[in-house]
Amino acid sequence: MFNRRLIAIAVFVFAVFFPFARTGSAHEPITTKVMFNKEIIRILERNCLGCHAPNKIKADIPLTTYEEARPWAKAIKEEVLEKRMMPFQAVKGYGRFQHDYLLTQRDTELLVSWIEGGAPRGDIKDYPKHEIEHLIDGKDWSLGEPDLVLQSEEVKLAAEGDNETRCAVLPTNLKTDRWLTAIDFQPGNGAVVHSASFHLRSTKPIPPTVKMSACEMVGETLGAWVPGQTATRLPAGIGRKLNAGEQIVVQIRYRNSGEAATDRSRVALYFAKEATPKTLRTEAIAAASVTIPANAENHLVKASMLVAQPTEAISIRPLLFPFAKSVEAKAIRPDGSIEVLIVARDYRYDWQPTYFFKTPVQLPRGTRIEVSAYLDNSDNNRNQPNDPPVELKLNQPLCEIALAKSALAKTAQPKKSGLATSLR
Ligand code: HEC
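Above: the input record for the complex with heme C. Below: its predicted structure, written as tokens.
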């Protein structure tokens, strides 16, 4: 990859400093009507610039202008045809999602036609300057003006060191209970913010003498953000209750960029006008205390959850980790019918999005959600951190699922027994 980058830069330098080569239609005649400033930039805007732009996670490969994108043309074709970009884990055909983070066939064809046809620039008048500027400065919220914006204190990151996780407790100062319908996130410094998740502050009683870090206060998950992910509103009538005075903990993972950096990220909250009839809760389905022998190449781990009251699944987030080859979740209903919720493959450190179902998935009482993961603890696994591989003991959430249930049903029962989580 590094070499390819050098070659791309070299080609670019050559093209810039040897004008003959640039106009070099003798070598590369223009044989396409597809233009960068017209069709291509709009495809990139929709699918790629959430990561490949200044102040985003792939700021080192920006694709926002012709000059930036042209040297990468060949690499773009390869990435797109190999379906490595945009990064995507959910296998097509299993589960139906609002955003499938996949290039459409038409967009793929346009990209390939542009590249094979000599990658022409087109008329600068067609370039959507305004939209691209907005996307880069990242000040706009895609769902419109939020009801409440919370901002963390400035975080300082050293030049040396590993990727780090930092947490901040953000008071909401709400005077009344509210029902959250969406959460959005804007990294302050998109080049170093790898991902973020939002949680309620844990209400577990702590002795006053114990000092806890913000990361230890992380309670129930409200949602998560990864670069390029589109914020999504919950379906009408579903909200997540935020009690007056309750606090939100934002957990941000930072990527070490090799340079000292600072960040002040923002979290936007959107509320329903009034109490929603259904409340949402995110449950983690975890495999408790499993042992994976060293060198096991295809070790199956299972976890499951029993649905004790009728509910519907709104979103799902497979939590792939370096040892996971795949994670699959399915709902087995009491009538015996089986619905595959998601199949995800190819762990990528850079990309673990939440998938919102196109329509909520009905889960009658007695449904079992079964999650199976295949793990590779051998040295064939390119993410294997141990050399040689060692026996692993895992206590690992395999996926998170957001379930909506009637608020009435919830108050009728003690809080803990709402959903029995049986781990195996
Ligand atoms: C979620 C973030 C994200 C999105 C969206 C994304 N990329 Fe990438 N891209 C990456 C990362 C991270 C890399 C670094 C290599 C890797 O991890 O595979 C990369 C690498 C690349 C490379 C360089 C590959 C090489 O040869 O080194 C190209 C070209 C590329 N992306 C094009 C695209 C295009 C075109 C799109 C849209 C169709 C896109 N990317 C969407 C994150 C993203």
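Notes for the reader.
Residues 2-137 form one domain.
The pocket of heme C is lined by residues 1, 4-5, 47-48, 50-52, 58, 61, 72, 75-76, 79-80, 84-87, 103, 227-228, 350-351 (CB under 6 Å).
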